[in-house]
Amino acid sequence: MLYLALGCLALVLLVWITRGKPMLKRREWRFLAGALAIACFAAAAYVGVRGGWGKSIVLVVMGLWLAASTRRTGMAVPPAAGRISDSEARSILGVGPSATEAEIKEAYGRLMRLAHPDKGGTSGLAAQLNAARDRLLKK
After folding, report:
1. Of 17, 56, 132, 133, which shows the fewest CB atoms inside 10 Å?
2. b/e map of 11-48 (b: 16 or more CB within 10 Å)?
3. How would you write 16-58 as a 3-class SS string?
4. What are 2-60's pLDDT values in tens digits?
5. For 50-54, 98-102, 116-120, 128-132, which range has the lowest pLDDT when averaged over its residues?
6. pLDDT in tens, 45-54
7. What is the mean pLDDT of the chain?
């Protein structure tokens, strides 16, 4: 019971010190969560061999949750083509205010080859590129 109270006190202090803001960025959290998942699986194996099946099951579930959280990717909501400004569209495609239609299409094609979901990119980034191209070419 003492360990539970100390854990709750540590959690309250951590939240109070950070004022509810996350301490770790996504990249650091993913690395830490992966390391903790491995530690949970190792501890579960050790405790399971020693006969503590209940604790072992809890550690395996914690390890699975941590391992799953390392694989989660943020699903950014892509802006609609009508909701982004010209300056946002130009900064997404990396073109200047005096860019021609050919330059816009060339920048879009170059970036889409890198950001396409089939080539390792994300669908959110591809949607942003599509929205930026549509915004600049419909002027």
Report:
1. 17
2. eeeeeeeeeeeeeeeeeeebeebeebbeebbebbeebe
3. HHHCCCCCCCHHHHHHHHHHHHHHHHHHHHHHHHCCCHHHHHH
4. 767 877 687 677 667 766 566 556 666 777 788 888 988 998 999 899 888 888 888 88
5. 116-120
6. 998 998 888 8
7. 80
Superfamily holding 86-138: DnaJ domain (1.10.287.110)
* Residue ranges per structural domain of the chain: 26-72, 86-138
Instruction: List phi, psi (to 5°) of 64.
Output: -65, -40
Q: What angle do CA 126, 127, 131 make, to 5 degrees?
A: 120
pTM of the model: 0.43
DSSP 105: H
The span from the CA of 116 to the CA of 111, in Å, is 8
Residue 60 CA to residue 51 CA, distance in Å, equals: 15
